[in-house]
Amino acid sequence: MVKERAVIVSQKCIGTDIYDMVLSFPRGAKEAKPGQFIAMYCEDGTKLLPRPISICGIDAEKGTLRVVYRIAGEGTRLFSEMKEGDSLEVLGPLGNGFTMKEEKAIIVGGGIGIPPMLELDKQLSCEKTVVLGYRDELFLKDEFESYADVVVATEDGSCGTKGTVIDAIKEAGVDGKVIYACGPMPMLKALAEYAEAHDMEAQISLEERMACGIGACLGCICKTKKKDHHTNVNNQRICKDGPVFDAKEVVFS
Amino acid sequence: MVKERAVIVSQKCIGTDIYDMVLSFPRGAKEAKPGQFIAMYCEDGTKLLPRPISICGIDAEKGTLRVVYRIAGEGTRLFSEMKEGDSLEVLGPLGNGFTMKEEKAIIVGGGIGIPPMLELDKQLSCEKTVVLGYRDELFLKDEFESYADVVVATEDGSCGTKGTVIDAIKEAGVDGKVIYACGPMPMLKALAEYAEAHDMEAQISLEERMACGIGACLGCICKTKKKDHHTNVNNQRICKDGPVFDAKEVVFS
Amino acid sequence: MNLEVKLAGVTFKNPVTTASGTFGSGAEYEEFVDLSALGAVTTKGVANVPWEGNPTPRIAETYGGMLNAVGLQNPGIELFCERDIPHLKEKNASIIVNVCGRTVEDYVEVVERLSDEPVDLLEINVSCPNVKAGGIAFGQNPDALYEITKAIKAKAKQPIVMKLSPNVTDITEMAKAAEAGGSDALSLINTITGMKIDIHRRKFILANQTGGMSGPAIKPVAVRMIYQVHKACSLPIIGMGGVMTGEDAIELMMAGATMVAVGTANFHNPRATVEVLDGIKAYMERYHIEDINEIIGCM
Amino acid sequence: MNLEVKLAGVTFKNPVTTASGTFGSGAEYEEFVDLSALGAVTTKGVANVPWEGNPTPRIAETYGGMLNAVGLQNPGIELFCERDIPHLKEKNASIIVNVCGRTVEDYVEVVERLSDEPVDLLEINVSCPNVKAGGIAFGQNPDALYEITKAIKAKAKQPIVMKLSPNVTDITEMAKAAEAGGSDALSLINTITGMKIDIHRRKFILANQTGGMSGPAIKPVAVRMIYQVHKACSLPIIGMGGVMTGEDAIELMMAGATMVAVGTANFHNPRATVEVLDGIKAYMERYHIEDINEIIGCM
Ligand SMILES: Cc1cc2nc3c(=O)[nH]c(=O)nc-3n(C[C@H](O)[C@H](O)[C@H](O)COP(=O)(O)OP(=O)(O)OC[C@H]3O[C@@H](n4cnc5c(N)ncnc54)[C@H](O)[C@@H]3O)c2cc1C
Ligand SMILES: Cc1cc2nc3c(=O)[nH]c(=O)nc-3n(C[C@H](O)[C@H](O)[C@H](O)COP(=O)(O)OP(=O)(O)OC[C@H]3O[C@@H](n4cnc5c(N)ncnc54)[C@H](O)[C@@H]3O)c2cc1C
Ligand SMILES: Cc1cc2nc3c(=O)[nH]c(=O)nc-3n(C[C@H](O)[C@H](O)[C@H](O)COP(=O)(O)O)c2cc1C
Ligand SMILES: Cc1cc2nc3c(=O)[nH]c(=O)nc-3n(C[C@H](O)[C@H](O)[C@H](O)COP(=O)(O)O)c2cc1C
Ligand code: FES
Ligand code: FES
After folding, report:
1. What are the residue numbers of the active site of D?
2. Percent of chain C scored above 70 by pLDDT?
3. The pLDDT of residue A231
4. D59, D61, D62, D200: best to mutate for the C interface, most C CBs within 10 A
5. Gap between the Cα atoms of D8 and D31, Å rounded
6. Looking at the DSSP assignment, which residues form a beta bridge with residue B54?
7. Is B3 in the pocket of ligand 2 (CB under 6 A)?
8. Domain coordinates of chain B in residue numbers?
9. Residues of B numbered 200-239 whose beta carbons fall under 8 angstroms of chain A's beta carbons: which are they?
10. Mean pLDDT computed over every residue of chain B
11. Residue A229's pLDDT is what?
12. Can you list the residues of chain A whose pLDDT is less than 50?
């Protein structure tokens, strides 16, 4: 984990309000694992807190990290306006990342939860299928296809299965032993239930509003079944103990 | 008076922490008069108030205004880091400016009060002498010399009279009917007394911390002898009724 | 799209007004703002007689805000009635007059003088020190607030809006005291007391040492207090504190404000009032809101 | 250059500590900060038993600051003593333990448990709601504050530092109550209560609706209260509220703080504490200040 000024190597718009940014962040890139995230700071002093953004690609050799993010507010809008050569403060890599197993994998991404699954797809060497859920507009799909078979669900049915990622899994008869997933809470909850019913492991990546990003402020907890070592209550810190959790451990509200 | 985004046409450092910036601000340049000022806004949202900076040069044809300022804090430091082509919000021209008379003039500038006197020097067509007071390092002196004779005082005696502008006026035997001046308060007070003693008019340009810059907030008043029309007390607004006052009207504290 | 709001029985064409003291009596902003396009112009605090205000410096910038210690310099009610009211009327502006004083009698005198003037609302600034009570502000003591409200209400011809100070332990207690005293509406928040030191000169930036903090830095306190007061009493609210954009105004309205005043933002941008109004309209369009009244206190 | 300060009889190698709740128990920041280089580490509020804290979201960003409603989640004093204190000692850090509770008895239990622990100061957070008094915080009522101070002081083996809430009408009244109750020093300020609404979803950002505002936006309030308290009572002060730089720390010290805590700044920059310390040193060098104690309360 380091904090450094990272230079923007490239940035492009790859969908409506969706940006693809490559950062030169050598020390961070060396350590990074799929499922981890970085904290990106705004240059604007009115916004003090870092924006947590998942790592979408790692190039340890070139010393770069890639992130794909959607404009969700002022901070991400400022990032989107930055240009190649601009720089910003970055802290990372943060969090635990996915635990890569050897068993047959189902890699699931929903919406802006899709980007963190790309590096995992790339690094997982076992048998695997990728399931991507979009509202309508597709992004990153081609890149996933270079590492695995991809099944798509769209809300409007414009591509693949009309419906959710669960619908797509069923329709395409996707199976496996371990689900790795990131996406909106209802999707993660449905996947947790699906995994439970099918006796599969599910590693899900959660989101919460953060302040420190490193486990100190207790801002970003999720309810868990077991007491955890750190806080001695049924909470775990998403930034430090997560963002990836065994779905069986999470209490969905 | 307009508020517009002004583009920086050029900026250079002309002394220790002293910058010379030319702004493209066509509508403002058309109206501007010597002794008026502009309010420059920081791009940084943590600093909301405008910085009042005197107009040092007017080019109505090119539509530019020139300012010369010293780094005094965070805002002016940010200005100094801006480059040609960058832009910032500017409000102006503000204030009354000098009332140009036909009588023999003594134009006095002290320290960072020197810049506003340059355009006056240029525009005043009558007989005139310029008196400039510096701590040690000279700036803008050559430019004044292209319009008038220049007498210099320095605190350390490294150039011209060692001492104050009053010392220089006496030593060089400068005389005239109207003093126009901008500079630190002790200098202005001394000039006011000198003018009084020698039966001269003195137009002095004052400074105060401002919020609105246009006469609405009553943040920037100076004590005056007469009740003024606006506030009905013995205060006048430096931003609106000034910054140039007849020294006889000002109550020095 | 309906932007009209009604507050204390008075109808305003839209919910945007100016925060007292930040907009003079409007004249200075006319080059930037059509005064008749605003819901109302709220004028700088005016007393029974002219006040000189505090020595300078009166202004200090702070992180995301500012401090002011203007000290309520004002020309006195006579000149105000002769000059500022007719001017605002000529410009077709609705008028909220902000009133200040050092004693209850001062306030009452101003309010009575305004009886026959074409003024829509009287906003009573009770953050002024009560000279008869050792300098603690009227708005910091519920009993004093109740008394002054009652005294003013008894003489006021126009509806009165007590403007509360945020420098209190429990804002709802103050709101209830003003309600009990007969206030027709409430304004909140006034500035939060702060201080800034020039560490290089070892001097206070403000001649008065302390000043009132305003600007976006204080918005979360404004939202909180507006919400608390809206839940605790039934008076309509003019909200202010850090409004820079239409979205900020919407936030204060959702918390419970019927009207919203734009203050410090004017110093950052003289067109702030109209831009806030435009921002409100844009928000309403985006979410297909027909009537601005739908969102008031919707939380 | 002397940076050593003495507060409540304890000597600290320099005046920079951490603001409780923003630095955990130090461990998370060890990759960025040598804990022994700080004046002290002030730990996250700890109660007699573990607290779950509030539901999420607990964090909201505001203009120049933030709101938190963590709700004092903590592992309870046992685990804290077993794990966090030994770890901090191993790292050679001076320790200020921040204590919270729901009743006077809760606090006293924690303080007694800490009797034999190698702790330098006990900082008592009285912004917690007093469950026996309808939820108003101990720190918002001078009598309650006096009582809890007295009860804690009677049992405490280490010097106690009452940490005051800024959400009061008159901070000096609270300072005097804590002084009368036997407090050895004071900490101020805790967070200012605020609220933020997500206008797009018409929901409060914080699950708890309100949260505590911190960060540079509140610094002017901190400076003002530190100054007022420094003038009104004779206890030494640990100052906090918006310190981002060494210059901010100097400002709080000039207002009257003997030590300064860095809070929200850590979230913006994990090295904020050491950079504040470096900034203090740079200021001292620039102005040829031999001893940091010269500037404390110099206004
Ligand atoms: C572990 C993790 C990984 C993430 N990865 C990605 C990613 O790869 N791509 C992507 O587009 N988004 C990702 N997000 C969401 C992203 O952090 C938010 O969209 C972003 O912080 C919004 O910032 P803003 O300034 O644009 O919005 P604003 O609403 O203006 O932000 C205000 C504050 O709220 C916080 N905030 C707002 N929305 C969220 C959110 N959904 N999650 C956490 N904090 C939020 C901001 O960080 C900031 O502190 C991730 C979130 C987490 C927790
Ligand atoms: C009418 C007028 C004309 C001026 N002309 C010039 C000029 O031509 N060249 C030049 O270098 N300076 C000029 N000044 C001074 C200049 O405004 C300040 O140096 C500048 O505002 C400092 O801003 P800062 O952010 O760097 O300092 P900071 O100290 O960080 O500023 C904080 C706040 O204090 C205000 N402030 C600080 N010092 C002054 C000051 N001396 N006068 C007014 N406000 C101040 C700032 O505007 C800002 O609101 C003029 C001032 C006035 C009133
Ligand atoms: C320079 C200045 C002068 C003010 N004068 C008054 C006043 O005369 N009467 C009053 O009730 N409030 C006064 N206020 C408070 C504002 O009306 C408003 O309540 C406060 O500034 C918060 O709003 P803002 O953050 O939008 O500025 C003044 C504020 C400022 C900044
Ligand atoms: C996330 C967070 C958690 C906090 N937890 C505590 C706490 O447990 N006990 C306490 O006394 N103060 C707590 N505080 C208040 C800080 O210690 C400090 O008083 C306040 O944040 C002002 O300082 P700052 O502006 O530097 O953050 C907390 C503040 C934050 C931001
Ligand atoms: S963001 Fe601080 S603990 Fe996770
Ligand atoms: S700065 Fe507002 S009146 Fe001069």
Report:
1. 128
2. 100
3. 81
4. D62
5. 31
6. B37
7. no
8. 2-94, 107-198, 206-253
9. none
10. 96
11. 80
12. none
Nearest to B70 by CA among B112, B40, B41, B42: B112
Domain B107-198: CATH architecture, name and number where available:
3-Layer(aba) Sandwich (3.40)
Closest CA to C163 of C98, C212, C74: C98
Stretch D196-214: mean pLDDT:
97
Name the CATH architecture for the domain at D5-295.
Alpha-Beta Barrel (3.20)
Whether chain C has a CB inside 8 Å of the CB on B233: the answer is yes
Neighbours of D294 (CB within 10 A): 12
Tell me how far apart the alpha carbons of residues B243 and C277 are, in angstroms, rounded to a whole number: 33
ipTM of this complex prediction, to 2 decimal places: 0.97
* Opening angle at CA A7, ends A6 and A8, nearest 5: 120
Distances (CA, A) of C298 to C205, C256, D144, D203: 41, 7, 36, 10
Res C274: pLDDT: 98
Beta-carbon pairs below 8 A across chains C and D: 110
Q: How confident is the model at residue C128 (pLDDT cuts 50, 70, 90)?
A: confident
Look at residue C164 and give its three-state secondary structure: coil
- Whether the pTM exceeds 0.95: the reply is yes
User: Is the pLDDT reported for residue C94 higher than 80?
Assistant: yes
Residues B8-24: tens digit of each pLDDT: 999 999 999 999 999 99
Assess D64–B contact: CB distance below 8 Å, yes or no.
Answer: yes
Query: How many Å lie between the centroid of ligand 1 and the Cα of residue A70?
Result: 9
My answer on whether omega of the bond before B34 falls inside 30° of 0, hence cis, is no
Q: Does the beta carbon of A43 lie under 8 angstroms from any beta carbon of chain B?
A: no
Cα–Cα distance for residue pair B164/A122, rounded to 1 Å: 75
Instruction: Tell me the DSSP string of C8-50.
Output: TTEEESSSEEE-TTSSTTSGGGTTT--GGGSS-EEPPPB-SS-
Question: Which residues, numbered 114 to 143 in chain D, qualify as contacts with chain C under a Cβ-Cβ cut-off of 8 Å?
Answer: 136, 140
Q: What was the pLDDT predicted at A232?
A: 87
- Domain map (residue ranges) of chain D: 5-295
Give the residue carrying structure tokens 């007295």. D150
C146-184 pLDDT per residue, tens = 999 999 999 999 999 999 999 999 999 999 999 999 999
Task: Please write the tens of the pLDDT for every residue from B209-234.
Answer: 999 999 999 999 999 998 878 888 89
Domain topology for A206-253: Dihydroorotate dehydrogenase B (pyrk subunit); domain 3 (2.10.240)
CATH 1.10.3380.30 holds for B2-94: no
Q: Which tokens sit at D166? A: 């800024």
The per-residue pLDDT for D84 is: 97
Q: Which ligand is nearest to the CA of B206?
A: 2
Which chain D residues are within 8 Å of B45, Cβ to Cβ?
Answer: 63
Segment D182-210 shows an average pLDDT of: 98
Please compute the mean of the pLDDT values over residues C210-220 and round it to a whole number.
Answer: 98
Structure tokens that stand for A167 in this block: 């619908």
Best mutation target, C59, C61, C63, to test chain D (most D CBs within 10 A): C63
What are A166-175's contacts with CB under 8 Å, separation 24+? A166/A190, A166/A191, A166/A194, A168/A131, A168/A133, A169/A106, A169/A108, A169/A131, A169/A194, A172/A129, A172/A131, A174/A106, A174/A129, A174/A131, A175/A104, A175/A106
